Amino acid sequence: MVAAGAVAPAGAAPSPTALAPAPVGATAADAPSASDLPVFEYRGVITDKESMTYNPTDEFIFPSVFHAGAYLDDPLGEWYLYYAPHDSPGGISLMYADSLEGPWTEYAHNPIVENEWLPFYEHVSHVSSPDVLWDDATDEVLLYFHGENSTTRWATSSDGVTFDDSGVAVTNADGGQGTTETSYARVVEHPDPSSGYRFAMTYMQNRTDNIRRIKVAESVDGKTWDVRPDPLVVPDAATGTNVSGGNLWEWEGQLYVVYHGSTGITFARTLDPTMTQVGPRWELHKASGVGDDVGRVAAPEIVTDGDETYLFYESGDRLGATIAWAQRDPDAVRPPEPGQDPDPLREQCSGAASDEFDGAMLDPARWSVVRAGSARHELADGVLRVPTYPTGVAGASLPLQVVPDGPWEVTTAVSVSPAERFQQGGLLLYRDDANYAKLDLVHGSLGPRLEFIWRQNGTDRNTGFDSVVPPSDLGSTFWLRLASDGSAVQASVSVDGVEFAPWGRTVDVAALGATGVGPFAMRGSATPPEIVASFDWFRWTPTAEEVAACGDDEPAVEVQTATRCLAGRAYVAVTARNEGDAAATVRLVTPFGERTVADVAPGRSAYQSFATRSTSVAAGEATVDVVGPDGAQHGSTSATYDALTCG
Questions:
Q1: Residue 425 maps to which CATH number?
Q2: Residues 6 or more apart from 466 whose CB is under 8 A from it?
Q3: Gene3D superfamilies annotated for this entry (predicted)?
């Protein structure tokens, strides 16, 4: 049995440097990919609110699974499931079963840990977020939980039911100045055997900016902890403002950190044993929207027992959640990651205002220049070269195109190598000299930084979320993108021209009120030497009408169906493979529900296993509707499936 809370160590020496941000693109040919992750299918709810005896707040969160039969002499069941309400009074609770597939029995005397436990602590508003593991050194169960949100605590037990000792593990004071929450901890045996620590903790830290991150702490005895200064995972555009529920998990020899975001999706990122190198963010699991499988997927706990792998998680809205479970479908094909793009650099089709910089001067029909009298940019050999002007934005010459209304996206390839303070080059979104947002590579006071800085009424929004150490594989040429959905602008960066990763926080479109966008370069003053930022092109993502004009082939799909039995129930599985030359949105439709998958890249598949909620299913037909990148319907394809009786 391997659980998310029991990773197998594999070693590399720890790095003394600060944690690096996730690499934007994989560099090794044999590196793991999103397609290596398992596909989980929803199986149901464990904590039925109407039947639970201890249910003070009608919500249950943060499942932790413990293999009691592997460690305890006379357990209540082979498996223990710890969970808790969150709101006052909370209360650490227990269920048990002889199989991970249930049925689960509620412990008769919940809660096993309450919000008042003298002499260890006086009354707190709540205790919640349990996580449990076995300590081989003491032959005891170690329990971690929070109460208040500012304090993560430990407790010990010989039987996993009665806890007789407790103390404080980590508090706000350990997280550094500005920390306001220290909770939702998961603890595992340290994956790096050379670290000198026995245990590693991932926990949620909130700060005064109300942005939640995942941090790392380490311990020799599981009770006294050292907190690393930098976060392991920070929010991005896909996660929303917060990330939490961080857990370590090993799958097919690769270590991952799994977690959820504000968007209600559970993500996975590769992680090295030293817990310093975090890979790209991949979607691991989200609700299908079919039947009862709706709402958030949060606080992931993954357990493998024999050939079966299970995902336990909190399902539903934040303050009305329940514990649900899903099971790996070994026959499933993982859908493509959102954002996979058959034409990431808009080489096959670009918007009408795009510029390849192949003329002798900027086209005045497309471009205007702020402070044109001091402009020294040059076009030669299909490249726009912009000198680093000896000033800030307020004094630089700025070539700009008009920002369109509604959604838009613009991308450029830039080559710049800032080596002295404040040399920089990138993309600028501009209203006036006191109001702009810039995405650039800069040599700051602490060295190179990739930053997306919003200046509003003369004041910069500039924190550790906005100005970040560049990925280790960032070369002298890289790709920058600004994209607006009409409400907010998101910056993205690519190191390979294939995969783009969100960078920094979004900028409010209305608050900025930008009218122009274009390349820029500057160096703050005349002190550092002048260098040049080179831009290979400036391309707008085409509108639906422009895509149609480009003559993209209509997408086509190959549909396959299968019926199978899982846990005694009949399921209808539908796979649709995109055989066209452009990304497409497909809608899988059966009598038992439907699912829409966006941006299915050419050669990739969309998949869904639909639960019939019966032990048998009659022969029938599934339909796949296809929508092309131009938004137009391109017809439907149908395929029959066979009848099946289970059991």
A1: 2.60.120.200
A2: 451, 452, 453, 454, 504, 505
A3: 2.60.120.200, Glycosyl hydrolase domain, family 43
